[in-house]
Amino acid sequence: MTNNLGYFLDTSVIVSAILLPRSVPRQAFDLAFIQGKVLVSETTLNELDTVLRRPRFDRYVSQEKRLQFLAKFVQDSMLIEVNEIVSDCRDSKDNKFLELAVSGEASCIISGDNDLLSLHPFRDISIITPQAFVHSMGI
Hints:
By secondary structure, this protein is α/β, with parallel strands linked by helices. It contains seven helices and five strands, in the order βααβααβαβαβα. The chain has one domain (6-136): 5'-nuclease (Rossmann fold), CATH 3.40.50.1010.
């Protein structure tokens, strides 16, 4: 059963989910889709596409499989138009994630990035690790 909760998974969580199919990030990835909607923006999708095309991942999962994963991810996610500028993160490259979460009214950001985790909660949006997210779902 799904509800109206929106989740944002940062790029490293998604990459871990594809490269390590039995990992906690993969469990968090799957649970986010089961429990609600996974939010994306053009900017976050562009970053994910760039990262998934890196040749260094070829030894783990072929580029073809990574791009198939990306296509399915895009199809299953909810595209959000970012309408708010945020500059609160100490790593300015991570502000795009906060902007998406705020614009999409996310309930949770799932991340392993300390620059984001240090902001928990951010404007009433929880920022938690994949492990904490999985645990919060009773798994």
